[in-house]
Write a structure and sequence with these properties.
2 strands, 41 helices, Serine Threonine Protein Phosphatase 5, Tetratricopeptide repeat, two-stranded antiparallel sheet, 0% strand
Length: 868
């Protein structure tokens, strides 16, 4: 079942949260709208939980900005050597005329010498990888000949068979199996072999949920409600997720009152904040449709109270005001709109409330009116409001009105008026006025004026907290103009602000702009002062390149080698420099890939290592294995709900719950370790990797100095049964695909990027259709990209095509995979096969970073899985 250590996330319909982004504030677009602008209120989209991780960056996660193109247009001509009618990586004929159709589902031929236990394991693995036809074939066979299987194993096989049948449209057969299974009240799904914190669910509960699915698919909505309610009765903590599904079944049967009653149950259940918002918004809409505005307002107020951003709070305040208008409570509505203007001026809907008030002739404070208009992009009415505010009381008006006016005029293209407002603001805050003047000139493209203003700021306000920011900004502006003193500007930043985060980059750029001994001296200083920084490592890398090109005569090559070898191998240039001095070719491994047969190999050693480093901390370490959940994490109700959701196959919802849990406990190293193993055993691989990486960071360690078990949690070898044969078939090192998949999706099969790249290999739809055509993939549908066995096959094929098109030069193939073959061909023509020249030539920052990160990943896999 799906709680196995090898299990993975299968495709689920992405949960559309109607409403609000409670974690990420979305400012209104700056457009010049009149105050009379009026639209139907639009609810802001809810970002996924994953988006909030962008600020953490423990892994430098995937940067899928530029994606592979569906039609290769660069490099050598690409031919298709894959035999028509075969599935890449399997060698199986997909047009086998001997296939047998049972209940409309094509049977898949299996090896005849498999034991029932082996067929059960094959079925489990195929289900986890999204290969439902193989799942059905293997598990039907195991159920028909269960010799040697326990009652629990047979029941699990039947349950998994029913799930696979549902995925393949076999709802009738699935229903028959599940109706029998729900009568079994004593069996649990077998636990994962070995010690695991994942609690196997009762088989009858999971069967009841899928019975509801099968009946709904067959149009038996009353029967679906009965099955879902059976599950909910045994799992009342799942009300927030199961009750809305029950509501859907009632609606399908035409029973709206019953649907509302189900949603009333849903809003009483515990859930991750976005789900609470979704349920309450949905219930509020039903109440409004029935004219029950009082109860709708209760839901809006409840959402406002749990919301964490101004955008959400303002939106709910406005919707409550609209409901009051619908009820005829005009004064109460106006109070809501005024409250939004005072408390949530940046919310998009607050401006809509302002429009209603202005059109109704309700007085609004001019300063607040100007602020709301400014954030809504309604600049002209905002300017008028600020002017009235200043004129009404010249002695006590809000002084930042001048800043709002300046930025409003700038947005309207009137730089002269904007600068005049900054002059007025200078009487109150000369430093801020001058800093903003410099930034405004820079935005306007008047670089000389911007440089002069920044220089004035640095001369007059050297002790200001923004001095380092100003020094960095003016250095970049001078550099952009090709001025001769740019290096001096960067050096001034480094000398004056040694602890500023931009200082290593400034020193590196100063070296680039210098020549001869001066360049060498700057890069030596950078390598000495900031060896752990990637720019410090790059400086040492560039110095080594000079020694190999018979330049930099003043350099001591032996001493430089020692410094490079002492670098912590935690970034691309540290690894690249160490490979260069060690004579190690890029993307080459001397040993075959050896994933461990037992994914807990080395765990005892790792836990002993952890105990040494965690001893004396705030948390008391448990006496037994560290892997079992302890403290609040063990009983956290949100974790329990997330685990149950995952075991039902509701993966997106499960991820939202469990990611919140991970963030809650992520500051505790012991909890990070426990979660890394727990999420791995559950199948939530992305969260496992992030927890493992967070643990190493907290312990000031990396995969090269920590036990291999911990490194393998951060750089895992999931789906080895698919990736190893694919790599052998296409003739590339399997480490390359492991590193690519980790970079693209962190092994999350249901991952989807903002540009619609999908699945483990992050293939965009057009590319997927092109690959399916080249592979003659049967019955291909775009959603198949979320199935691991499809996503990995397609990713391997496309990678192999790029390797073939670029003479097996891995860096060029990766550039083509990320930035498109045409762009890669342009870079390859300029730089050739030399990796370092090629990377320097790539002018897409995202693609350059992509190559560097996969280089890091390949080296990690080479280290972790190349040892005996």
């Amino acid at each position: 079942m799906i709680n196995r250590t090898w299990s993975v996330a299968l495709l689920v319909v992405l949960l559309v949260l109607l409403g609000v982004g409670c974690d990420n504030e979305v400012p209104a677009a700056r457009v010049n709208q009149p105050e009379s602008f009026s639209t139907t209120p639009l609810l802001l989209p809810t970002p996924t939980a994953a988006q909030s991780l962008a600020t953490i960056d423990p892994l430098r996660p995937p940067t899928p900005v530029v994606y592979p193109t569906p039609t290769p247009n660069g490099g050598s001509p690409i031919t298709n050597d894959t035999p028509s009618g075969t599935i890449a990586g399997t060698g199986e004929n997909i047009d086998d005329p001997t296939g047998v159709v049972t209940n409309g589902i094509m049977a898949v031929a299996l090896p005849t010498d498999l034991t029932p236990s082996e067929r059960l394991e094959l079925g489990r693995t195929a289900l986890a990888e999204g290969d439902y036809l193989r799942t059905i074939a293997a598990l039907r066979s195991a159920v028909e000949d269960p010799q040697g299987l326990s009652d629990e194993e047979v029941a699990e096989a039947r349950l998994d068979l029913a799930v696979a049948l549902l995925e393949e449209g076999g709802a009738s057969e699935a229903e028959a199996i599940l109706e029998e299974l729900v009568q079994v009240t004593t069996l649990a799904i077998p636990a994962t072999p070995g010690e695991s914190a994942v609690v196997p669910p009762l088989l009858t509960d999971v069967a009841a949920f899928h019975l509801g699915r099968s009946r709904a698919a067959l149009g038996d909505h009353a029967g679906a409600v009965e099955a879902y309610q059976g599950y909910l009765q045994n799992n009342p903590d799942m009300a927030a997720y199961i009750a809305p599904i029950i509501a859907d079944a009632h609606l399908a049967a035409g029973d709206t009152p019953a649907a509302i009653a189900a949603l009333e149950v849903a809003v009483g259940g515990p859930a991750q904040r976005f789900k609470v918002v979704e349920n309450r918004l949905r219930l509020a809409r039903f109440y409004l449709a029935q004219g029950n505005t009082t109860e709708a307002i209760v839901q809006y107020d409840a959402i406002r109270d749990i919301a964490q951003t101004e955008a959400t709070k303002g939106q709910m305040t406005f919707l409550a005001g609209q409901a009051e208008l619908q009820a005829g409570n005009t004064e109460a509505a106006y109070e809501r709109f005024l409250a939004g203007i005072e408390s949530y001026p940046r919310a998009a809907e607050t401006h809509q409330g302002l429009v209603i008030l202005v059109n109704a002739g309700v007085p609004v404070d001019d300063y607040q009116r100007g602020v709301v208009n400014y954030y809504a992009g309604s600049y002209a009415p905002g300017i008028e409001a600020f002017r009235r505010h200043i004129t009404a009381d010249p002695a006590t008006y809000q002084k930042d009105s001048h800043l709002f006016l300046a930025q409003s005029y700038e947005a309207l293209g009137d730089l002269t008026a904007a600068l005049a407002e900054l002059d007025a603001y200078a009487a109150h805050d000369p430093a801020s006025s001058l800093f903003e003047r410099a930034a405004m000139f820079a935005r306007a493209g008047d670089i000389p004026a911007a440089i002069a203003a920044y220089d004035s700021f640095l001369g007059e306000h050297a002790g200001d907290d923004r001095a380092a920011e100003a020094a960095w900004a003016v250095a970049q502006l001078v550099d952009s103009q090709g001025a001769g003193d740019a290096a001096d500007r960067y050096l001034a930043l480094a000398d004056g602000f040694p602890f500023d985060p931009n200082t290593p980059r400034a020193l590196y750029r100063a070296g680039e702009l210098s020549e001869g001994e001066e360049r060498v001296a700057l890069w030596q200083r950078l390598g000495e002062q900031y060896p752990a920084n990637e720019y410090g490592a790059e400086a040492l890398f560039r110095l080594w390149q000079l020694t190999q090109a018979d330049e930099g005569a003043e350099l001591d090559a032996a001493a430089l080698r020692d410094r490079i070898e002492a670098l912590s191998p935690t970034n691309y240039f540290a690894l690249r420099a160490q490979d260069l001095v060690g004579g190690v070719a890029p993307f080459v491994a001397g040993q075959p890939m050896r994933p461990p047969e037992d994914n807990n190999t080395g765990r005892d050693e790792a836990e002993a290592w952890l105990r040494e480093r965690l001893a004396g901390g705030e948390a008391e370490l448990p006496g037994g294995s560290l892997v079992m959940l302890t403290g609040p994490l063990a009983t956290d109700p949100q974790r329990v709900v997330g685990e149950k959701l995952w075991q039902l196959g509701l993966f997106e919802s499960a991820k939202a719950e469990l990611e919140t849990v991970r963030e809650t406990y992520g500051t505790d190293p012991l909890a990070n370790y426990q979660m890394a193993v727990y999420f791995r055993d559950l199948g939530l691989f992305r969260s496992s990797i992030i927890s493992a990486a967070g643990l190493l960071r907290q312990l000031d360690a990396n995969i090269y100095d920590a036990p291999l078990f911990l490194g393998s949690l951060s750089f895992p070898a999931y789906y080895a049964d698919l990736i190893l044969p694919l790599a052998e078939r296409y003739g590339f090192d399997s480490r390359l695909q492991f590193a690519l998949v980790r970079q693209e999706s962190l092994f999350e099969s249901f991952a989807r990027s903002g540009a619609a790249a999908q699945g483990l290999s992050q293939v965009i739809p057009d590319t997927g259709a092109w690959i399916a055509q080249r592979l003659a993939w049967p019955d291909y549908d775009n959603e198949d990209l979320y199935k691991p066995y499809v996503g990995l096959n397609f990713g391997a094929y496309y990678l192999s095509e790029q390797l073939r098109g670029f003479e097996n030069q891995v860096h060029a193939a990766l550039a083509a995979y990320n930035g498109g073959p045409g762009n890669a061909a342009r870079w390859y023509e300029s730089a050739g096969a030399d990796l370092d020249r090629f990377v320097d030539t790539v002018d897409f920052p995202e693609t350059r970073l992509y190559i560097e990160r996969i280089y890091e990943g390949f080296n990690a896999y080479r280290y972790l899985y190349g040892q005996p």
